[in-house]
Amino acid sequence: MKNEGSPMSKSKQPTIIDVASAAGVSIATVSNVINRRKVPMAPETIRKVEEAVVTLGYRRNVMATNLSRRRSYELGLIIPHFGGYYGRFAEKLEQRVHHFGYHLSVFSAAGMDPEIEQRHLEHLLQRRVDGLVSHGLAMSMQSTQQLVGEGTPLVIFNGWGWPSEIVKLAVNLDFAKASSQAVQHFLANGCRSVVYAGRRMGMGANEQRIQGFETGLAEHGEPVVHALLDAGELGVVGTLDEALRLSGDLRPIGIYTFNDALSLELLAVCHERGIRVPEDVQLIGMDNEFFARASFPSITSFEMPVDLQTSLVAAFLMREIGEELDEENTQLLEMYLPHVAGHELFIDLEMIERKSTGN
Amino acid sequence: MKNEGSPMSKSKQPTIIDVASAAGVSIATVSNVINRRKVPMAPETIRKVEEAVVTLGYRRNVMATNLSRRRSYELGLIIPHFGGYYGRFAEKLEQRVHHFGYHLSVFSAAGMDPEIEQRHLEHLLQRRVDGLVSHGLAMSMQSTQQLVGEGTPLVIFNGWGWPSEIVKLAVNLDFAKASSQAVQHFLANGCRSVVYAGRRMGMGANEQRIQGFETGLAEHGEPVVHALLDAGELGVVGTLDEALRLSGDLRPIGIYTFNDALSLELLAVCHERGIRVPEDVQLIGMDNEFFARASFPSITSFEMPVDLQTSLVAAFLMREIGEELDEENTQLLEMYLPHVAGHELFIDLEMIERKSTGN
DNA sequence: CTGTTAGCGCATTCAC
DNA sequence: GTGAATGCGCTAACAG
Fold first, then answer.
1. Where is the HTH lacI-type domain (chains A, B) (predicted)?
2. Res A113: pLDDT
3. Does the CB of B7 have a partner CB in chain A at under 8 Å?
């Protein structure tokens, strides 16, 4: 066919065809220099192409690239929201996968909304991402299975009870162990009554905390006054009231909360009531947020090992995709994978002792 | 055990050709029903296609779709980090543009790192997003211009001094006015000395606060002991020390901080030193973060009008892209656009009075 | 109403 | 070393 010199004025964004004709070479050559292929090329050719790229302001079209490569070099991440731990997780994971030449698209499910979550998942899949990472999803497992199918490897973090047909690996923080540790810290500190103040009863992360809370009590041996409270239901004030009521005049009371935010709110109520922390009430939170350190008194909390968690997620996913791992990442997987119970891997949390428990 | 290329199994993902042959129709027909086109079609045909789609587990390939459409129906957002205000902004904007049938890809620049920022921008452009939204970027204007060029409309939020050749519109929060208001609130509350404690001196958002701070002082008429401090340089403790030193025994001292986080940190130091808030020191923050409400005493702050800001950004960008606006959005633009000074639009912040200023 | 065909921008064999 | 040719999966006229 007679394909006259395609008018560059046609579409404003230049293509490799424009670059090729500007440099006086073929599009294959342009592709080769752009992708820094190992094929031998004349230095002069390279120079001409690079010059044309700059002067034309050429920018490759990744849609075309991916379509042709049948691979996107993109990963998707779904988190409940951008704040706190999840935001830090996203940022760190982005860095990690970039190291392997992948991009990470992050989507927030706007507070565990299953519909939004599903929409994002679907979109990521339509974009043919090479791999998926998600928090323990709110949506039903069945719909997820159908969504993900066999095509795209899915790694979960902080999700419990997912069948291995759906999820390749779950990289979980060991909230149960941490919770047990919290209880024992209270008891070692002289608390004569301990309370767990949770949120969203029924969610996996909450269940893990409850389980650990009870383990901690059991290991103590002697019976202790204790309770499980739902701050979502009772409200912050109601939770404190209930804790006080249940404890009678046993002091101090140890209150272990679902997260730092709840601890901070309880702390504010204690201040208002003239309840002393840590003399009357001791607090332990979770997440080690900025304000746990900056509050008065500062709040004992658990540091989230985002570095390790994202490292494991990234390394495993990369291997799953067929990417070559360096020595460090290989060792990392060898070190942790054997410890996997089923396909769930557990990472320890570190307690940061602060004033709210008298330290 | 050599891993078989999981990504290769994706080649088994069905295409419209598979669907077409399974349903016994042509690919054009499949395309028509998938996209719910207005062309008349036999109900039976639709049913057959939809059935084939389900049984085959067909999922459209958006890369191919976009390539063909020469349009991505995607927007990009770049923010310095996922936390707090920026995270809320991202979530809200995502909702807004979804309403118009667009997806929003959010990227965090990991704390104003110009290199990462530029990388994300470049990637978004390579993906041929239809529009871009960014905070006042850390990178140089020149490189941005080259990056964005004439192709993709760019809307900035909270960025000052960007030439209109680069930026179509800047939707800014009026930090200057808010800062002026903060100072006047201190003075009306009896503060005999006022201090601005900033961070990252030199950044636009900080400059705006300083400007407003000085305006507020000027409008007061009578001279007041005051100072501009850089908490990034002095540290939190150093900042408080300096404020106390400069104020002699003038009390109370009003300290207006760059954000709530800094207020909270100052509050903690006050507690340690036995300095009373608000009797000796009054505090006003910015962002109205969760902990501003939950701290003790609670901290007066400015609420960020994320709803309005994202509405304006979305409406303007949609119109710029050539999308049809509904009545509501049209009115919104008509209401605010005339007030634009140059191409910078200002939105008022609302002060939330709390205990840290004696309310 | 439904099928045919020509791109979209790029990667990737193979010949030259 | 370099360049035509083919295909990736889908959309969009244009025929029939």
1. 14-69
2. 83
3. yes
